[in-house]
Amino acid sequence: MAHVHVQDATASAPARPLVLPVVSLRSAAPWLLLAVVLVGLVGYFVGAEQGATSVFAGNAVHEWVHDARHLLGFPCH
Questions:
Q1: Is residue 52 part of a domain?
Q2: Which positions ≥6 away from 62 have C-beta within 8 Å?
Q3: How confident is the model at residue 5 (pLDDT cuts 50, 70, 90)?
Q4: Membrane-crossing residues (predicted)?
């Protein structure tokens, strides 16, 4: 794993190199894919889970995400 050394210019003490890890796209790809899937699921349940495209019958999901729906500006009434 390679490291990038950056000098900390704001400290009054003698400068020590700041070591930042470099993460390759290949090693980050599974986490990025998981994040995209989770954000997509949350976006679906908050924004579209009700009516013609509902996965679960009834109003349970709607009531669980009702406040989030209003917070994000989705119409629900």
A1: yes
A2: 49, 50, 69, 76
A3: low
A4: 28-46
Written as one letter, the residue type at 61 is: V
Closest CA relative to residue 23, chosen from 38, 53, 3: 3
User: Are the C-beta atoms of residues 44 and 68 closer than 8 Å to each other?
Assistant: no
How far is 53 from 27, CA to CA, in rounded Å?
35
End-to-end Cα spacing for the chain: 53
Count of structural domains, the chain: 1
**9-67 per-position pLDDT tens digit:** 565 777 888 999 898 999 999 999 999 999 999 888 888 877 677 788 887 888 888 88
CA dihedral 50, 74, 33, 52 (to 10 degrees): 20
Task: Write the DSSP symbol of residue 70.
Answer: H
